[in-house]
Amino acid sequence: MEGNFICPHCGALNDELRGCFCTKCGAPLQNSCTNKDCENYDPVTADIMSTDCYCPLCGSMTVFKQGGWVVPDD
Ligand SMILES: [Zn+2]
Ligand SMILES: [Zn+2]
């Protein structure tokens, strides 16, 4: 399974080594911070879970939250 990554948005199987975006739906495979001054802005190194709505480092919205792919738990 190494290199394989299930898209959290559409469920398609992607090869992680080919890039950071789903080849079926175009959505980013790794969640990251929307604040370009933040350490978590780069999806390759970002320490953000796919279920996170906000960045733990700066509190900015995450890419997944911005795209509407995650919603806050009640
Ligand atoms: Zn997808
Ligand atoms: Zn951040």
Can you describe what's shown?
The chain has 74 residues and is low in regular secondary structure. The protein folds into 2 domains: 1-28; 31-74, no CATH class. Helices cover 5% and strands 8% of the residues. The protein is built from 1 helix and 2 strands, in the order ββα. It has a two-stranded antiparallel ribbon with strand order 1-2. The longest helix is centred in the last third of the chain and has 4 residues, at 63-66. The mean pLDDT is 91. It binds zinc ion (2 copies). The site of one zinc ion has 8 residues, from loops.
Summarize the structure.
It is built from one helix and two strands.
Report how far apart the termini are: 34 Å
- Subunit organisation of the chains: single chain
Q: What small molecules does this complex bind?
A: zinc ion
Report strand %.
5-15%
Low-pLDDT stretches: none
Number of domains: 2
Rounded to an integer, what's the Rg over CA atoms?
A: 12 Å
Helical content (DSSP H or I, runs of 4+): under 10%
- Biggest sheet record: 2 strands, antiparallel
Class by SSE composition: little secondary structure
Order of helices and strands: EEH
Number of extended strands: 2
Q: What is the number of helical segments per DSSP (H or I, 4+ residues)?
A: 1
pLDDT averaged over residues: 91
Strand line-up across the major sheet: 1-2
Could you say which overall geometry the principal axes of the C-alpha atoms support? globular
